Amino acid sequence: MRIIVVFPKLQDAKNLKHVLSRSGFDDVLACNNAYQVISAANDSAGGVVVCGYKLADMHYSELFGYLPREFSMLLVASPAKLQDCYSQEIVCLAMPIRAQEFVSTVQMMTMDVARELKRRTKSKPKQRSEREQKIIDSAKALLMERNQMQEEEAHKYIQKRSMDSGNNLVETAEMILAFERRLS
What we know:
184 residues; alpha/beta; 58% helix; 14% strand
């Protein structure tokens, strides 16, 4: 989980990087322009960008638009500037910030990003091997032939049996084929 700290004054970014490093964060980068942030974010799996209101080359809201969706943003600015932040997706901290509040906020954000990344990877269907797909297709063909089902009906039947039995789709298709072999 990468944390990128960006402020117009590089020393401000380095100071916050030091606070995070002392608190146990390993992958922390300090920089002073949006170009560096975008480049580093595109080379990372996900993380948090901690930034000021206005950078040398870009406004925080523009930078947010360029970030990959695997990144969250923490805006650190004066209370007056924070009133201009209308995005529900950007977390805000008013200056001056207390170290513990800052670290806790970043910890919360990194946990949220990690949870979201895990959810996204879980939701992607597992790619089946050619052999597994052939087993499922054979079971569907058998059901279509023997029970006069359409392909979609046969697939839903295998899915339903799979959910009911607690087995995966391939195991269920194998059971259907094995049962047919016993009948033949």
